[in-house]
Model the fold of this input.
Amino acid sequence: MAKILAVDDMRSMRDLVKSVLEKQGHTVTTMDDGDSALAFARSSTVDLVISDINMPNMTGLDLVAELRSLPGYERTPILMLTTEDNPEKKQTARSVGANGWIQKPFNPERLIAAVDTTLKKK
Done:
């Protein structure tokens, strides 16, 4: 199964994503902000990144842009998992390199489906 990096400043959200995806056989590493996620990504690669947008220190959009400049992350699928529902934010996310969007709150089946679909396209 896949190695996944999940980034969210809310512990409950990180724990939920980790629990749901690990039950599917994935290995999930969690980080609480963009800075720590970027530091992790500089020394490790993953098959998929899932990131919130609104986080302290570095937004998810800034994280996506930074990840796209790292060797090994140019084509890594990135899903945004956020409460945002603004079409302009979605377009900005696409323009910096995000591949998809999952609206919070989400049900576990929707997260699993989005992850499975995104990984199959990889």
